[in-house]
Known about the structure:
The protein is α/β, with parallel strands linked by helices. It folds into two domains: 3-253 and 427-456, Rossmann fold (3-Layer(aba) Sandwich); 312-404, no CATH class. The protein is 30% helix and 17% strand. An eight-stranded mixed beta sheet has the order 6-7-8-3-9-10-12-11, with helices on both faces. α6 (183-195) runs parallel beside α7. The model is unreliable at 1-25 and 392-474 (pLDDT under 50). Adenosine-5'-triphosphate binds next to β2 and α2.
Amino acid sequence: MSEKSKDTAVTVSTPSDATAPAKGSGGEVLLKVTGLQKHFPIKKGLLQRQVGAVHAVDGLDFEVRAGETLGVVGESGCGKSTMGRLITRLLEPTGGTIEFEGKDITHLGVAGMRPMRRDVQMIFQDPYSSLNPRHTIGTIVGAPFKLQGVEPEGGIKKEVQRLLSVVGLNPEHYNRYPHEFSGGQRQRIGIARALALSPKLVVADEPVSALDVSIQAQVVNLLDDLQQELGLTYVIIAHDLSVVRHVSDRIAVMYLGKIVELADRDALYKAPMHPYTKALMSAVPIPDPKRRGAKSERILLQGDVPSPISPPSGCRFHTRCWKATEICRTTEPPLLELRPGQRVACHHPENFEDQAPQDTVLLTAAKEASELLGETALEESAETSAAVAAEVSGGAPEATGTAKTPATADAEEAEAAAEAEAGSADADSDSDAGSGESADADADAEAGGSADADAAEPEGSGGTGKTPGKSSDK
Ligand SMILES: Nc1ncnc2c1ncn2[C@@H]1O[C@H](COP(=O)(O)OP(=O)(O)OP(=O)(O)O)[C@@H](O)[C@H]1O
């Protein structure tokens, strides 16, 4: 455990201590998602006839292993939150399957889900709306016990106070109301509520994005500590790559309802293979001023994310990709494990041998996108792709990625409800995007909703001090 843990107030003593799996991806598969889809119908007219659908999540395959943290990143609207709500079963999937500990929970009803609610909890983004202002902290954190009919040893009050100290809050504040706490503290209250029933999997949707930067680090460190102490498994959804890098063992990059790359954290940051991942990475500021000068080319993606109502054909990223060729427009690339532990859905991956070397003519959109790139970035990309291709195939790089720089390529014309369980409150699939979190706090309680924080953060709560810049130590 890192040094930060020593100075935190995290003093946990649960039976899970002894059995907490080592941090990493070596555990058993806890959650397995196959072909997961969520299409929100678009209805119009008096008869509310369906005229289309928002393809929010469109065929996800991944698994989460016990004890690991899977980070999920992507631009706004790519379906991250929908994915989180699907795997916690706050939304009913349109297609695909979700297995938790080997059990198919894809279409379990409210009663069937009840026992599972203990094992899977969710932390929401907004600490201000996820706690009922009329209830005391004791009532909020103790609600899951009542909803599940669980009587902890020593009584609910004692257990709630223990949970408050676990998340770095003063147990004496049991009778206080949410407005008496700072945002950071409220986030901790939400985390305490999520932990009440000793879940196995915690899905945190943007757990720190509403917080002041200085408080983000504390909450991230608290989550980290709790994972180590309690052997938790996390799926952490965030758009901030620095946060994701800090907390994750593996990272899934989403674009327009699909996973385009799924890899171990270090591999992903060292050698991203999907051009979209590369572009996302290039947008992360380099904190070290000495390194800022070097390789500072930014890949500026042109335009907005296309509409999920009618996503582009083939590879969904082709309308914004500087490497896109005809095959990208026509054929969807499968998510393939091109390197051990690194799955990528791309015909022309970075840092790897080209998957469609015969297809060398850039699309018009690709040429436009490439204008925004620094020459050096393109050259470097071509060079590394060619070199790796040579290494992998043991032969000459020939007409692989090298042919795909704008300088050498020829032009060519071408053209892209929820099942609201106790916790979901509102979350009706067809009508409310992210309302689950803003809804009634009690409702979230059973599902495990909570989360957020801000400045101040007085009573030396857990996870103080460290910034998310601790890089490799997680
Ligand atoms: N209940 C709903 N009804 C219709 N469309 C929805 C609903 N919920 C989400 N969407 C749409 O699905 C797409 C994915 O939304 P989602 O909130 O999952 O994305 P996200 O990646 O989490 O974005 P953000 O980071 O902004 O929250 C968006 O286009 C969104 O408008």
